[in-house]
């Protein structure tokens, strides 16, 4: 049985008859998740307010050269820069799979003018702005308003939420009461860093990839980069042409060739760092070492909800946000509190869209949730399966192969078609292509047949 679908039988309750109920709903964040949530909630007849602390929509996709003063992002009082994008970033998914269903992410002259299949970040931001403008979403957004506190108005009533927000600049605070809150604040802003024995006396500089923008500061430096995620791979390639040496320390060397990397004159792959010394040496688990100027942590992010007060009903434990039914609803507070976009190793925008439709339908009463007991049992079962499979807690929201089953389950709840088959095929083809051509997968591929299928599908929405 697949992990995403693991569950004891859940009985769907009888649907209440129309008319469905319109709720007053707060959405936190106007990134891709908040935008599609706002659209779907309003389509379902809800009254929506979106809070966004930036002055524009797009979230992660708003590139800024600005970085935070604490390069590791450990200081909780630091001024936050939301986005973790680096200047050279191109998408790691083909554009055709990335978009929302009826607003295809095809090459269009009126966006950033970047027609590539794996475009630069400016094109994704232009797409999201186009989406917001096409569906009049911005009129629901209160810009430059940071949500600082979300809690129940009355501890005995789950269906009235107080949302406190603060205006950027003048600090003006505002309280408003809502029936429901949908959290869409993203999860690529709060760095996780590696623990390294000896680091306190190591003389070099440390930085987290959240604060990496351009290669120039690494000119002639010896850089040890920790991690094997998409960012680690991209950033090592970004700095290699200017750095003296790039040493990538990876947790698992399965299938990877340690040592000097064949396509580069100055990139090496190592096992994890064992310890570092006062003299600048970085020692790897196999006993080899290098003298380095910089350690660059590409070690991921933590879920972080500093504004949320649920008296422990929802917590983050070793990067597991829980308990959550299907990664969305905390059963005790369902459906009045929900989360969109917690899953990773997925195709994000289409999944946000399914989750949004589900939440909108549940809030209106069109879609029923199982009982509290059934939801809790389902979560327990899911956790037990993760444990039995040896999957660490911090991977609770990592989905990868099970995402399509999960998306189709959501679609089924909503009574709409599941994810397009060409999209699933294209995701697999892109993943395989990336393994086969790690350096060139963004510019060379063999799935043109799927691209044609995608554009046939897009024509339904564009002609
Ligand atoms: P975000 O885009 O982070 O939006 C959250 C919003 O909430 C922000 O606008 C923020 O300002 C706002 N906010 C946060 N806290 C508050 C608060 N307290 N009050 C008010 N507003 C608040 N996805 C892909 O599909 N393809 C890719 O190629 C790809 N590459 C990526 C590369 C990198 C380096 C990263 C970090 C992510 C990448 N992603 C990619 C995933 C990306 O995160 C998702 O595509 C998507 O943008 C996430 O949207 P979101 O709305 O969940 O979060």
Automatic annotation (TrEMBL):
Enzyme class: oxidoreductase
EC number, as in UniProt: 1.-.-.-
Signal peptide: none
Keywords: FAD, Flavoprotein, Monooxygenase, NADP, Oxidoreductase
Pfam families: FMO-like
Family recorded in the similarity comment: Belongs to the FMO family.
Name of the protein: Flavin-containing monooxygenase
Organism: Punica granatum
Upper taxonomic lineage: Eukaryota, Viridiplantae, Streptophyta, Embryophyta, Tracheophyta
């Amino acid at each position: 049985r697949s992990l995403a679908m693991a569950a004891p039988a859940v009985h769907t309750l009888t649907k209440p008859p129309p008319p469905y109920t319109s709720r007053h709903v707060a959405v936190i964040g106007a990134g891709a998740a908040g935008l599609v949530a706002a659209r779907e909630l309003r389509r379902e007849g809800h009254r929506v307010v979106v809070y966004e602390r930036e002055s524009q929509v797009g979230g992660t996709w708003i590139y800024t050269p600005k970085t935070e003063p604490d390069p590791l992002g450990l200081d909780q009082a630091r001024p936050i820069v939301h986005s973790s994008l680096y200047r050279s970033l191109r998408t790691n998914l083909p554009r055709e799979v990335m978009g929302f269903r009826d607003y295809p992410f095809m090459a269009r002259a009126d966006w950033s003018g970047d027609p590539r299949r794996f475009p630069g970040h400016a094109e994704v931001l232009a797409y999201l702005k186009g989406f917001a403008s096409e569906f009049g979403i911005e009129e629901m957004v209160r810009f430059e308003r940071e949500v600082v506190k979300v809690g129940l108005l009355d501890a005995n009533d789950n269906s009235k939420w107080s949302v406190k927000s603060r205006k950027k600049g003048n600090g003006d605070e505002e309280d408003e009461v809502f029936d429901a809150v949908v959290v869409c604040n993203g999860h690529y802003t709060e760095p996780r860093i590696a623990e390294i024995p000896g680091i306190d006396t190591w003389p070099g500089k440390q930085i987290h990839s959240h604060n990496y923008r351009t290669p120039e500061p690494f000119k002639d430096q010896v850089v040890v980069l920790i991690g094997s995620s998409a960012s680690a791979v991209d950033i090592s390639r970004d700095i290699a042409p200017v750095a003296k040496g790039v040493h990538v320390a990876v947790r698992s060397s399965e299938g990877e060739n340690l040592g000097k990397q064949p396509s580069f004159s100055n990139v090496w792959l190592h096992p994890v760092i064992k310890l570092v010394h006062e003299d600048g040496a970085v020692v790897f688990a196999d006993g080899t070492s290098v003298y380095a100027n910089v350690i660059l942590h590409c070690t991921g992010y933590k879920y972080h909800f500093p504004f949320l007060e649920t008296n422990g009903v929802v917590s983050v434990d070793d990067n597991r946000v829980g308990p959550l039914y299907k990664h969305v609803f905390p059963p005790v507070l369902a459906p009045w509190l929900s989360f969109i976009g917690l899953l990773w190793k997925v195709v994000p925008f289409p999944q946000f869209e399914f989750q949004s439709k589900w939440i909108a339908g549940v809030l209106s009463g069109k879609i029923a949730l199982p009982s509290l007991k059934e939801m809790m049992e389902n979560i327990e079962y899911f956790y037990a399966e993760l444990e039995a499979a040896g999957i660490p807690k911090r991977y609770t929201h990592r989905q990868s192969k099970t995402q399509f089953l999960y998306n189709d389950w959501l679609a089924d709840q909503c009574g709409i078609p599941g994810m397009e088959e060409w999209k699933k095929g294209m995701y697999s083809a892109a993943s395989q292509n990336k393994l086969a051509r790690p350096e060139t997968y963004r510019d060379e591929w063999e799935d043109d047949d799927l691209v044609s299928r995608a554009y046939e599908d897009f024509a339904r929405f564009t002609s």
